[in-house]
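Case study 2.
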Amino acid sequence: MAGKYSALKGSITKFSVELEYQEKVNAKKEEVKGELSAKGLSPTASNLGLILVQARQQKDALEDLVKAQNLVIEAMNQELVDLLESLDFTSLKLGSGVSISIKDDVYCSVRDKHAFHAWIREQGLEDLFSVHYQTMSSMVKEALLEGKETPPGVDPYFKQSIMVRGGKNGD
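Prediction:
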């Protein structure tokens, strides 16, 4: 069944990945076909489809593990920030030589796009419409540090986390 964009095939440039990545993809294709061949199987649509489905299932399982690990990381970030602040510490060196310290940062969220866009136009900053959101974030952070008002429609948030330096994997 053709998709809604299928009629465009051949009329616009075909997407291509970076050469280095494509070389890795090509090597993986050969590896998979070699594994099939070693099992006495050929690279049929059915066999390749099965491998794709299994790979996606494995990826989903790994992403679930990453989500679970991110939960542990956030929990320990919050616990350590609270503990270090209660002890009046900003950093600590672990016995392994790894240093941990509290990192203070500000994040921004555009709550009201219309108000923010109107402010951009009023300030003559239309170039901001074509730049990355981090530019807006930097602008808001600078305004906060200078004691100026933040743009309307933008909510800044203060967040603390733990920065880890030295060592790998907590060794």
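The chain has a mean pLDDT of 91.
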